[in-house]
Amino acid sequence: MPGDDGRRAASQARDSGLHRVSRLTWRAGVASLACSAVIGVALARHSEASAVTTHPQHSTPGQIVIPAKPPQPSGGSGQVNSGAS
Q1: Where are the domains of the chain?
Q2: Which terminus of the chain has a smaller tally of CB atoms within 10 A, N or C?
């Protein structure tokens, strides 16, 4: 039949396109997995490099200093109004 060749060609074109899209999807997935692994390793190394001890001997600019004792609660009413009623 004359219509079978057209259907077969359309089917093959569709299958070829699906195969291409599938290959592209897998490649994008693998690339994103590799990128996320690289970012994860970079962030893990960065956090190790910037780790702070709990009681530093001296502080340098940009370093977080953790006090040995938590601050004491202050006396007072607790809530302050700025004059508005």
Answers
A1: 24-52
A2: C
